[in-house]
Design brief:
12 helices; alpha/beta; 2 domains
Length: 285
C-alpha cells in the first residue's frame, strides 16, 4: 500500500468514528507522519512512496486511540504553544491558542529589565506550565512561580521547564493559599466550566481532559474565580495586575464579581479570535 492510501484508510476509519471529514483528514495525516517520524515537508515529498515494513503495526494503536476520541495531543504527547513545544499528558489541560493572551498581556505589563527589582509573576493553575514557561522564556530576568493543585501536573510542568531551559519555581498548592510574597502580576487559567455543562462537552474534552482543570466549583462554575479574586485582592501589590481566563457567557458575572472588591478594577475584557469575551484584565488599585 502507498503511504497516501494508508492515510486515506485511516481517514475513513476516523470519519466512521464520528470525526468531521476535515478533522479526520487532518488527524489521519498527523498520525501517519507521527508513526513514520516524518515532518510535513518530508510527508509532502514522499507520501506516494510505498509504506515501509512495520508501519501498520506502529500505526494501529494510535488510530484506535483516536477512534476512541482521545485528543490528538495526548496521543502525540506534545502540543505547540507560543511557538514552543510542550509535553502534554492526561494529567494536564491541553493548551489552547486563546490562552496565549495571558502570555501577551503578562509580558506587556512586566517592568522593563533593569528597571528596579526583578518583576515577580505567579501563574495559578499552571497545568503543563505553558504560560509560566513562555513568560520565563521571553523574560529570563523575571521571577516566575507556578502553582498547581495537582502533583502529577507539576511533574509534567517541571519537565517542560527543563525542555526549554527556563527557571520557574514550582509549588503544590490550592490557588494562592499560603503565598506570602506580593507579586506584580498574577495570571491564571482557572477551572470555570459549570458541571451542568459536562454533557455538552465533546468526548475529547469531557472524556479525557482532567476534570480538576475543567470544572469550576459552585453550580455556575465560578467558585474558583470567586476564590481567586478574593485572594488576589489582598495579595497583589498596589498597581499590580490580575489576568485570568473565563468561559463563554460568563463576562457579566465576572464583571459583577470583580466589582465586589474595592481594591480591584476591571480595565478591560479581551475577546478571543471568535469574538468571545475570554480574558479579564484587572488592576489592583
Amino acid at each position: 500500500m502507498m503511504l497516501h492510501e494508508r492515510a486515506v484508510a485511516v481517514r475513513d476509519r476516523l470519519e466512521r468514528a464520528g470525526l468531521t471529514p476535515a478533522d479526520a483528514a487532518f488527524d489521519a495525516e498527523v498520525l501517519v507522519r507521527h508513526a513514520l517520524g516524518w515532518d510535513r515537508a518530508r510527508w509532502l515529498a514522499g507520501r506516494r512512496e510505498p509504506e515501509p515494513p512495520g508501519l501498520e503495526t506502529a500505526l494501529e494503536p494510535l488510530v484506535t486511540r483516536r477512534e476512541q476520541r482521545e485528543p490528538i495531543a495526548y496521543i502525540l504527547g506534545t502540543r505547540e504553544f507560543w511557538g514552543l513545544e510542550f509535553e502534554v499528558t492526561p494529567a494536564v489541560l491541553i493548551p489552547r491558542p486563546e490562552t496565549e493572551f495571558l502570555v501577551e498581556e503578562g509580558l506587556a505589563r512586566l517592568r522593563p529589565a533593569g528597571d528596579g527589582p526583578a518583576p515577580y509573576l505567579i501563574d495559578v493553575g499552571t497545568g503543563s506550565g505553558c504560560v509560566a514557561i513562555a513568560i520565563a522564556y521571553e523574560r529570563p530576568d523575571a521571577r516566575v512561580t507556578a502553582i498547581d493543585i495537582s502533583a502529577e501536573a507539576l511533574t509534567v510542568a517541571r519537565r517542560n521547564a527543563q525542555r526549554h531551559a527556563v527557571h520557574v519555581t514550582f509549588a503544590l498548592g490550592d490557588l494562592l493559599v499560603g503565598v506570602t510574597d506580593h507579586p506584580d502580576i498574577i495570571v491564571a487559567n482557572p477551572p470555570y466550566v459549570p458541571r451542568r455543562a459536562r454533557p455538552a462537552l465533546s468526548r475529547e474534552v469531557g472524556g479525557h481532559e482532567p476534570h480538576v482543570a475543567l470544572f469550576g466549583s459552585d453550580e455556575d462554575g465560578l467558585g474558583t474565580i470567586r476564590a481567586l479574586l478574593s485572594q488576589a485582592a489582598n495579595l497583589l501589590r498596589p498597581g499590580g495586575w490580575l489576568l485570568f481566563e473565563f468561559g463563554y457567557g460568563q463576562a457579566e458575572d465576572v464583571e459583577r464579581l470583580i466589582a465586589q472588591h474595592p481594591t480591584l478594577r476591571l480595565e478591560r475584557v479581551r475577546e478571543d479570535l471568535q469574538g468571545i469575551e475570554r480574558t479579564a484584565i484587572v488592576r489592583r488599585v
